[in-house]
Amino acid sequence: MVMDTLSPELKQALESFEMEELDLMIERKRLRDFKQLRRLLALDASVKPEYRQRALYALGRWGDPSIVKDIVTLLPELPESHCITGLEALSRLGTTAARKTVRMFADNPSPHIRKTVVEALTRLGSRSEIARLQMIAKTDKVQWVRELAQKRLKTALQR
């Protein structure tokens, strides 16, 4: 079971209401912590969903692009709030696969996921992402998503 292999320190950080403990673990960048966080992405019934979501948060901030494939594979299986965290993680990792996946979610039925895509495209900021942001600003079916895309587009173009 994945949960049985977690160090007490990581378990405590994952259970904390504040992200500070998890952020400190990320700063230390210990390989064993990375491996344990990666195992939490498994679609294993023993993994608490909130641990999986916090692992997505941590791995996105960790900055190791080797995790992109794991996140991309997991995204379609996740509930909305976890998918949002996964998309945010991908936007921080910035690989070609991460960028492509973020752009693919621009047509997701959830306006909350599309909002996250707008933020992710802004963070990524390449020509492809800006082009997709322009399309969202013009065509998204929800006004507040279009307005956010228009606002973020201005930010992205000023860089």
Walk me through what this model shows.
- The longest helix is centred in the C-terminal third of the chain and has 15 residues.
- The chain is mainly α and 159 residues long.
- It has ten helices and no strands.
- Helix 6 packs antiparallel against helix 7, helix 8 runs parallel beside helix 10 and helix 9 packs antiparallel against helix 10.
- The model has no long low-confidence stretch (mean pLDDT 93).
- 70% of the residues lie in helices and 0% in strands.
Radius of gyration: 16 Å
Described by its quaternary structure, the protein is single chain
Number of strands: 0
Sheet bearing the most strands, described?
none
Uncertain ranges: none
Shape: elongated
How widely separated are the two ends? 46 Å
Count helical runs.
Answer: 10
Strand percent estimate:
under 5%
| Helical proportion, percent range | over 70%
